[in-house]
Design brief:
This protein is of the alpha/beta class and 323 residues long. The chain folds into two domains: 172 residues, Peroxisomal Thiolase, Chain A, domain 1 (3-Layer(aba) Sandwich); 142 residues, 3-Layer(aba) Sandwich (Peroxisomal Thiolase, Chain A, domain 1), CATH 3.40.47.10. It is 30% helix and 27% strand. It has a five-stranded mixed sheet with strand order 1-7-6-4-5, with helices on both faces. It has a four-stranded mixed sheet with strand order 8-13-12-11, sandwiched between helices. Strands 2-3 form a two-stranded antiparallel sheet. The longest helix has 21 residues. The chain is globular. The structure holds oxa(dethia)-CoA (UT7). The site of oxa(dethia)-CoA (UT7) has 21 residues, from helix 1, helix 5, helix 6 and strand 12.
Length: 323
C-alpha cells in the first residue's frame, strides 16, 4: 500500500472588478492589440481597495471545502503560496486559518513567486505521504496589483489578482500510475537569475516596492525550462506527453503556454487556458486554472494532469496529478 495525496475539492475566488486591456490605453502608451498579441491577455481582475490576499484565499478555501464536503475542522494544515501576503508577517496562511475559524492544525506561507503553487503542492504531498497530516488546504493567492508600477507599460498590463485552492487528502493507493493523487514532483531554482524578475522593495528598503522584469529574458528561460521540468516529472514515473490528459500551466503568456505544449507533444485542446481572463496571477494562476478547468467540464476524475510553472528566483517546477 502507498499513501497518496488525493484532490478532494477545488475552488477559486476572483475579485469583482474586471479591467479590460483598453483601460490601460488611457494611462500608458499601449494598445489592446499589443497586449493580446504579445501575451494573450484580454482582461484581468483587480482587488477592491482594502481587499487582501488572505481574504481572497479564505474565499477560495471555503469553495474548495464545499466541493470536498468538508469543514475547516477537518483540516490539519493550511499552506498559502503567495508573494503578496497582507503583511510582512504573520503569514497569510495564519490569517486564513483564523478567517476559517480553525483552532487546530498549523498554517504557513510558501514563497516561490509564480512557481509558488507547485512548491506548495510538493510540501503538502511530502507531509501527507510521510503520515504527518491527513488533510491539507493548499492555496495560491495574490494581489499583484499592489506591487505594480502603473507607469511601466512592460509590466503593469500583465498581472491580475485572485485565489485558488485545493483540498488534498491522504488515501491508500497500490503504488501504480493508476492511483489517484500526486504521482510525481520536480522542483528547481537558480538564484543567479534573481535580477531578471524581482520586487525592488522589502525589509532592506523599508518600502513595499514594485515588480521589475526583463520580460524577454524571463520568456527565454520559461520556454526552455517548463517543458524540461514537465518532461522530467513525467519521466520519473515512466510517462510522457502522450499520456497527458491536461496540461494546466502557469498562466503568464499564451505564447509560452503554446511553446511548452508543443515541446511536450501535447495539442492545445489538452491545455487549460485562462490567461485571457485572469492575466498573470502568479501563484494563484494554477489553482485558478484547475478550478475553472473543472467548472468548464474539462478536467475529470481519473485524468492525468500536469502542472508547470516558473517565476522569480528563478524558481520552477512541475507536479503530475492523477485527478
Ligand atoms: O510569471 C512569471 C513569469 N513571467 C513571464 O513568464 C513573462 C515572460 N515574458 C513575456 O511574457 C513577454 O516577454 C512580454 C509579454 C513581457 C513581452 O513580450 P515580448 O514579445 O518579449 O516583447 P518585448 O519585451 O521584446 O518588447 C517588444 C517591444 C519593445 O519595444 P522596442 O524595444 O522593440 O521598440 C517594448 O518597449 O514592445 C514594447 N512594449 C510595449 N508596447 C506596447 C513593451 N510593453 C509594451 C506595451 N505596449 N504594454
Amino acid at each position: 500500500m502507498t499513501t497518496r495525496a488525493v484532490v478532494r475539492g477545488v475552488g477559486h475566488y476572483l475579485p469583482e472588478r474586471v479591467v479590460p486591456n483598453a483601460e490601460f490605453e488611457q494611462s500608458v502608451d499601449t494598445s489592446d492589440e499589443w497586449i493580446r498579441s504579445r501575451s494573450g491577455i484580454e482582461r484581468r481582475h483587480f482587488a477592491a481597495e482594502g481587499e487582501t490576499t488572505s481574504q481572497m484565499a479564505a474565499k477560495a478555501a471555503r469553495a474548495a471545502l464545499d466541493m470536498a464536503g468538508l469543514t475547516p475542522a477537518d483540516i490539519d494544515a493550511v499552506i498559502v503560496a503567495t508573494s503578496t501576503a497582507d503583511l510582512t508577517f504573520p503569514s497569510a496562511a495564519t490569517m486564513v486559518q483564523d478567517a476559517l475559524g480553525m483552532d487546530q492544525g498549523f498554517a504557513f506561507d510558501v514563497q516561490a513567486v509564480c512557481a509558488g503553487f507547485v512548491f506548495a503542492l510538493s510540501n503538502a504531498n511530502a507531509m501527507i505521504v510521510s503520515g504527518q497530516v491527513r488533510r491539507v488546504l493548499v492555496i495560491g493567492a495574490e494581489t499583484f496589483s499592489r506591487i505594480l508600477d502603473w507607469t511601466d507599460r512592460a509590466t503593469c498590463v500583465l498581472f491580475g489578482d485572485g485565489a485558488g485552492a485545493l483540498v488534498l487528502e491522504a488515501a491508500e493507493g497500490d503504488g501504480t500510475n493508476a492511483d489517484r493523487g500526486i504521482l510525481s514532483v520536480d522542483l528547481h531554482s537558480d538564484g543567479r537569475h534573481r535580477d531578471i524578475l524581482y520586487v525592488d522593495g522589502g525589509v532592506s528598503t523599508g518600502t513595499t516596492g514594485h515588480l521589475r522584469m526583463e520580460g524577454r529574458e524571463v520568456f527565454r528561460h520559461a520556454v526552455e525550462k517548463l517543458a524540461e521540468t514537465a518532461h522530467t516529472a513525467l519521466g520519473k514515473i515512466g510517462l510522457s506527453g502522450a499520456d497527458v490528459d491536461w496540461i494546466v500551466p502557469h498562466q503568464a503568456n499564451l505564447r509560452i503556454i503554446k511553446a511548452t505544449a508543443q515541446k511536450m507533444g501535447v495539442p492545445m485542446d489538452r491545455v487549460v487556458v485562462t490567461v485571457q481572463d485572469h492575466g498573470n496571477t502568479s501563484a494563484a494562476s494554477i489553482p485558478l486554472a484547475l478550478s475553472v478547468g473543472m467548472a468548464r467540464g474539462q478536467i475529470r476524475e481519473g485524468q492525468l494532469v500536469v502542472t508547470e510553472a516558473i517565476g522569480g528566483g528563478l524558481a520552477w517546477g512541475s507536479v503530475v496529478i492523477r485527478w
